[in-house]
Amino acid sequence: MKEIQLKDAKATLSAVVDEAVKGHGAIITRHGAPTAVVISFDEYERLKKVPSFGWLLAHAPLEEADLPARGQARALRDDSF
Q1: Residue 12, CA atoms < 13 Å, CB-side half-sphere
Q2: CB burial class (10 A; 0-12, 13-18, 19+) of residue 78?
Q3: CATH number where 37 lies
Q4: Intra-chain end-to-end CA distance of the chain, in Å
Q5: Rounded to whole angstroms, how far apart are CA atoms 24 and 17?
Q6: Does pTM surpass 0.70?
Q7: What is the 3-state secondary structure (H, E, C) of 39-59?
Q8: So what's the pLDDT on residue 80?
Q9: Residue 76: Cβ within 10 Å count
Q10: pLDDT tens-digit profile of 59-74?
Q11: Which of helix, strand or coil describes residue 29?
Q12: How far is CA 11 from CA 4, 31, 71, in A?
């Protein structure tokens, strides 16, 4: 994905969008730092439907034997004070 400065993206927005529709997104930078991404709407829709890692773990078809044995949990803080 190519990087393009914000001022250049403004000047050539139509071309930036045309490239995104063709599958060539762009990273928009401001003062050299990545600020935004231009991708096609189809790519956005595809990415929006990807489930989160937490959802995948919660819905994984695992059996008890699939998971490693857990050791004793460690304390998160010391309450001996």
Answers
A1: 13
A2: exposed
A3: 3.40.1620.10
A4: 54
A5: 9
A6: no
A7: CCHHHHHHHHCCCCHHHHHHC
A8: 63
A9: 6
A10: 888 887 887 887 877 7
A11: strand
A12: 11, 16, 59
